[in-house]
Each structure stands twice: as C-alpha cells, then as structure tokens.
Design a protein that fits this description.
Blueprint (H helix, E strand, L loop, with lengths): L2 E2 L10 H12 L5 E3 L10 E6 L7 H6 L3 E5 L2 E2 L3 E9 L2 E8 L2 H15 L17 E3 L9 E2 L8 E2 L12 E2 L2 E2 L3 E3 L3 E5 L2 E5 L11 H11 L1
Parallel strand pairs: 1-5, 3-14
Antiparallel strand pairs: 2-3, 4-6, 6-7, 7-15, 8-13, 9-10, 11-12, 14-15
C-alpha cells in the first residue's frame, strides 16, 4: 500500500527563492539555478519551470525513451502518474498531473521535497523523501531494496525510504543517505525529477536539461 504524504511536512521553497525563479523566467532565462540550503555551492540544484499549453501523457515520455519501472513509494496529491524509471540509463521520477497549474503548484512542492538536502550535512531528511541513494556524493555504489522479503530482493543501486533499511542493507552499511534526484524540470503538466549525470549525485542532469527539446521537437 502506498504511503500518503502530508503536505504540511514538505520542505517548501523559501519565498525569496520562488521570487528568483519567477524573475529568471520573466527574463527568458532557460535555467533557474537554486541552492537554498539543499544544494551544493559548486553544483547547486537546477530547477526549470517551462511554460507549455501541451498536456503530455506517459506515452509522450515513453516516446522519448523513458522506461517506467514502479510506482513511487508515496501518494502524490493530484497526480495521474507517479512512477520512477530510467531515461538514458539514469533514474528519473515522473509526476504527471491533469493540468499545468497543478504541476506548477502541487508538483513544485513535491519535487522540492524530493530533492531537498539538509543544511547541516547535505543529506536526505529523515522522512518524507521517496528515493534515496545509499552512497556519497562522489558516487560510492549502493543497494536497492525491491522488497523486504528475502536477501534475493536486493539489487541495483537505491533504497526504498523505510528507516529500518537505512543502517544495514544486505550486509552493506548505509551511512550516507542522499536524495536520488538532484534537479527537476516542470513542463506543462509534467514534473521530471532527475538523477545527476555520472556517478556524482550532485552533477547536473542532461535528462532534465534536455527534456523540453525532446518533448517538443
């Protein structure tokens, strides 16, 4: 059963950051670069808010190469689709809403929470985050909990967001718990949250940067 996320517990973008995003959009900037305490100073979280009247579907994303895997762990208010999958061999989380207004309100709130890093150590918060990479920012490998049933359930590179899995997964220590997604792009009714390029979790994402071009060409 999916967990319902409490909106009041989400980490919201500060008003000053939202104003920066709005000003950059008004000036025609392609990228709104934000490092509001939850991004690295040298490699900040990149947020792109791209106006579009098009209502995209999951099939549109599959057509550009997105390979959906499973539903995200939590319920996301207003979504018609909330899944994680892969695009160009990198993980992305996709939220699809009925309207662009919902994507730019509910979706932005959700994406900001899922890319949030704590001020004190840059790691993921203790709760409310959906996909967690058990590795350091330089790219130490990790493990994925597919199901808690047996040791055979462990594979690949990510953790489901259950605290009981954090300390030791399949015999491997998980002392560094970072959000899997660093950047996000909102275009029309779609929110895409992206894993960074390479093995460094803080690297910008080509998938998030090129999403508009791929969807509108």
């Amino acid at each position: 059963m999916k967990r319902v996320r409490e909106t009041s517990s989400l980490k919201l973008l500060p008003l000053s950051v939202l104003l920066i995003v709005v000003v950059l959009m008004a000036c025609g900037s392609d990228d709104s670069v934000v490092s509001s305490g939850d991004g690295d100073g040298d490699m900040p979280k990149v947020i792109r808010l791209i106006p579009s009247e098009t209502i995209f579907t999951a099939d549109d994303l599959k057509a550009i190469g997105w390979k959906p895997q499973k539903d995200l762990f939590y319920d996301y208010e207003g979504t018609e689709v909330s899944k994680w999958g892969f695009l160009n061999s990198k993980e992305v989380g996709v939220l699809i809403y009925a309207t662009a207004d919902q994507a730019n309100t509910l979706g932005v709130t959700a994406a900001d929470a899922q890319t949030f890093r704590r001020d004190e150590d840059g790691q993921a918060p203790d709760d409310g985050i959906d996909r967690i990479s058990c590795r350091d920012a330089a790219g130490q490998s990790a493990v994925q909990v597919v199901t808690p049933a047996t040791a055979k359930a462990f594979s690949a590179s990510y953790l489901e967001p259950e605290p009981r899995y954090f300390s030791d997964v399949s015999g491997r220590s998980c002392s560094n718990r970072f959000p899997t997604y660093n950047d996000y792009t909102v275009i029309g009714n779609v929110v895409m949250m992206c894993e960074g390029d390479g093995r460094n979790l803080l690297e910008p994402s080509t998938n998030c940067r090129e999403l508009e071009k791929w969807l509108t060409k």
